[in-house]
Amino acid sequence: MDDQYSRQQWVLDMRNDLQTPPLPHDIRPERDTNRPEWDDTEYTPIQLQSDTNTLEQDGLGYVDHVTTQSDSDTLNAPDQDIYHASTTTPSIVKPKKPQSAWTRLSTTWWMEVLTIFISTGFMIGLLAILASFQNRLTTEWTFFISINAVVAIVITAARATLLATVSVCLSQEKWNHFNNRARRLQDLNIIDRASRGPLGSIQMLFSVSWGVATVSAVVMILSLLTDSFVQQVVSFQPGNIYAHQDGSATFGHAVSYSSGLNFNWGRSVHDGIISLNENDATNPDLESAFFRGIWQTSWPSGVNCTSNCTWDQSYYTIGFSNTCADVTKETLASLQCSDNRTITLPYDNPAPCNLTTPQGLHFPFVPNSGGSAMAITSIGWDLGTNSTENLDGRSLSKSAFWSWNRNDIDLISMSLHLKPMLQNSTVVECTSSIVVYKYSNISFISNNLNIGASEKTPLGKVSGTTTMLPPECVSNNCFWADTLLWWNNTSPEIPHISISGTDLSIVARLFRSQAFSGSVGLGSQSVGSTTAFGNGSLESVSGVLDNIAQSLTDMIREKGAVQVAQGLTSQAVVYMRVQWLWLILPIALQVFGVLALIGALVERRQTKDVPLWKGSALAVLYHSVDKDGVLGTRVKDLQELEDLGMTQVMLEKKSDGADP
User: Which of 124, 191, 291, 610 has its CA 20 to 30 A from that of 637?
Assistant: First the structure.
């Protein structure tokens, strides 16, 4: 009676659009007299009312129509009359509910394809952002959140959409896993756990046979590491940039030099001290620069730089240069003594002798024994005694340096050959010239001026001259006048070069002065600068003369017709560096996620008879296992499952005293 009553009540509900749905495993629940909804006289169903009039099925199959009988007729009718209404009674045919857009999408893989495209788009966008800001300044990032935050957000979005697709692939696998082969029912639970997180995926790898879904499980597991990897993607490294700042980085260079009014007649250089001589003029700037090159190892570079600076162009400046060579063999071959005794040297009567270098510089001496000797001698062009037409800038001045070690010579106890005595000598000959320097890659770092590339072009014969008069002169009748020397035929790239003839004469006279040239150990009264040249080797002599040339050149850059080159000043900055290796894992997961979806699509073509339940919990609820081990359901499609999802249900409570 209860079954008949329940079935009749169910039909009555169908007719009245109460639409009590079929239960997952039976037509109705077992009666429980302890529930308040049940009593002894009347059946009151639990409220499982649908929100819409859409269900047209019973627990056994579809109902195409219902009768219009009264409630009492229906309740008293036999069972077969319930399912087969009288032909004389008109019927009401209910239209089939159309599928919703969500249901139509759920029966395909388009949602997952779209999701994986979105995830891939996030990853491609992130790579584009990182590539565009690689090695750029942090100040160029103007977004309101940091680049690290953007990376974290984009990676999180890419991972979330990726896992949404992968989890669906795993969820569908729990149905495909049981297709055409009996497997443990526990596998359904394990694969379902795998679709919900990494721990279930780890269990799946060790409990379920590997297949296409294994790729999805691996993605689930490795996704745990992406947060740690993302934190290493962008690093910040300090660095320096160079920018223009007015007056903060200046470098002087000059292609013209004339001291002009700095000439003071009646003074000359003698032993490093200015002395009276009305035939000579002096230039304190040149003198100071000349002698600091001899005795000082460093001096201010003439650069204005408030920090580290650099100059990105090339600049021409007039200056001096030296070339030196060891001419010992040629000079010793020129040995001559006053009495022609060049072979033997009697210890009691040494004769005056002379050595001559290849360029005509002489070293007169009287042979004697003991100690070391050094001599310096110079010749050069002079405006007062030489014409400007005879000036060749490649040989402004010539100097020779002779050092002689006589510690092994004993003139008292024996007669010796003079030439073997001179074998311990070293003769170095140098030529000072006027050149044009081309400086490139100039930098000033840690108070040191560095010139990365320096090209020098010697100045040859003078191209022309211009007479220079002091401002107080109104005509050429002035007692004093200077001559400006021009070189404009050196090279098309080099600008015109000019320098005062008087200043060039001063430089040449400084080499000839007693403050520079002289001797020690050879009977000369002037020592000069011999002690500054060490042992008189080629390296020592070249080093000192190079310092003199550099000092004179630096003085011209500061005192000549200076042109100021504006440079770039260093500024401390922070660079963004992308560590691409840390993106290997997120990119690999993206590739594996795409492969997992492709594998699911391929597997779908092979298992078309398996409904596309995906991750629906209702699909699991409405499946049951019969006594033959067959997993099945009465729900035919997702539309029916969606309709069932609109049902209002309440959890059945256990009776008092029963186990929970």
Answer: 191
